[in-house]
Structure formats: C-alpha cells, structure tokens
Amino acid sequence: MDERYDIAIIGSGPAGLSAALNAKIRKKKFIIFGSKEISTKLTRAEKINNYLGFYGKSGAEIRDEFMNHLKAMDISITEERINNIYSMGEHFALMANEKMYEATSVILATGVNFGKPFKGEEKLLGKGVGYCATCDAPLYKNKVVTIIAYQKKEEAEANFLATIASKVYYIPMYKEEVEVDPAIEVINDTLVEIVGDDRVNKLILKNQEIETDGVFILRESVSPGQLVPGLKMDGNHVEVDRKMATNLDGCFAAGDIVGVPYQYIKSAGEGNIAALSAVAYVDQQKMK
Predict the structure, then answer these.
(1) Which residues form a coiled coil (predicted)?
(2) Residues in the chain where the model's pLDDT stays below 70
(3) 10: which of 77, 94, 191, 226 lies 20 to 30 Å off by Cα?
(4) How far is CA 276 from CA 28, 245, 281, 287, 288, in A?
(5) Ordered structural domains, the chain, with CATH
(6) Are 180 and 186 in contact (CB under 8 A)?
(7) pLDDT (tens digit per residue) in 51-88
(8) Distance between CA 149 and CA 145 in Å, rounded?
(9) What angle do CA 7, 12, 18 make, to 5 degrees?
C-alpha cells in the first residue's frame, strides 16, 4: 500500500464510470475498480431508447461511447477484485486479492447481486466460508477445500489451491468446458447447504454430500452487506439518502445496487450525485 486515494470507486458500469468522470473533473485523486470490458449487462442490451441522446443504440454501441469518453479523459480502470472494505474511522481499507488500498471515501457501484446466499453461508462466513481462494489459501495447507465457481476464469484459483491443499473439489456453475488440473475433482452438482458448528465440515449437494474443511464461493460480486461490514441494507439493496450517502460516513452508493428502476440513465445520474457527495466529504475531511 503506497498512497491514500480521495475516492475509491467499486464497479465499472454506468454508475461507477459516471462517478469517475466527476471525480476527475473535480481533480480528486481516485481509483476505479472493475472490468475494462465495462458492464457485460450493458453490452448484452439489444436496444436502448430511454438514455437521453442515445436513441436506438445497442448496449455495445453505448459501451463504446463510454470507453471513448474515458479515453478522452485519461481514466483507466484497475482490474482487481475488492473482497472486503473496512471503515477505519477517517479512511477505508480496501482488501484486494494480493494487496490493500486506502481511500478517504468509497463509492459502491457494483450493480445488484441476484445470487441469494446459500443456507449456512452467512453463519459460517470467516469460519470456512470465503470469497477469495488465493487470499486464504495458506490456511488450507494439506486440507480439503471446495470451490464453487460462477465463471471459467476462476479455474486459475482452483489450480493454485491444488498446489497447497491435499484435495480440491471444483463445482462449476457455468456452461463452458472445465479445464483444471487433473488432481482436482470436478463435481457437476448444485450446493444446497453448508454445514458446520464452529467451522465448515460438510457440504450437502443435490445428489450427494462431501466432507470439506472450507468452501470458496467465487461469484462475480459479493453482496454489499458482505463486502462492507456494518452497511445498512434494505432487502437486497443498499440504503441511501438523496445524496447517495449510506449509514457509514464517507461511504456512498449508486446504480442498481441502491434499488429499482434498473435503468442505465438512472445509474449514471446517481453516479454523478455520489461523486459530488464524495468530493464534498473529502474536502470537509481535509479542512479538519
């Protein structure tokens, strides 16, 4: 960790990108985490007619315009997954796979997480349930570990874990062909429940049960309540006020993550507000 940013933005959909533009315009030191492909959901949209000035455009065309805008303003996206964000009082600590970042304020723009937690997942979080295999791999030396992966790219994490654990089970939740180390046992089944008293010891699947010392659930994004401990939720969404402020000082949220309607123009507008609120918060902190 080298420096502290004024604003850290998590998510590179319309809300996150809009926030980044405003952070840049207001000359703040910021970092935006996400995918350089921008929003896969946006790319898949066939036609968008309710985004002012972009009538009849496909999602891919609008994404290209977004990318042109970022390039013109010299904004680059950091392709790192943020696993946890902790409020430290006067700043936030953001834990990525292999390092830590610090920021005075945070804007959450990760979209909505439609995946409900598995039975037992929240109860055993940190007690054998984790979301980053490479981070926690040393804890599982010569132990049995299971990975539930929602994207093919997670195969690399499974292969890495196989060099440390005595046994790795791999449960793919995607349709592409699985190509992992031959030592890894691939199980094509669905998780029903994570079982354990003080720690994970068993997984109940639809068609079988397996004994395991730990399970990593590698979703595209973790729910905001798990990402930021202490964050006030309203069902599946983050609770915010008109300034996009959450219950945690210095933490803001925008886009689908804060609720319906799930519209790109609404997300972009909220990203703008969140950035202005974060800028005001950072300026206030500097005056103290």
Answers:
(1) none
(2) 1-2, 39-41, 44, 113-115, 221
(3) 191
(4) 11, 11, 9, 17, 19
(5) 4-114+222-287 (3.50.50.60), 129-218 (3.50.50.60)
(6) yes
(7) 999 888 888 899 999 999 999 999 999 988 898 899 99
(8) 13
(9) 65
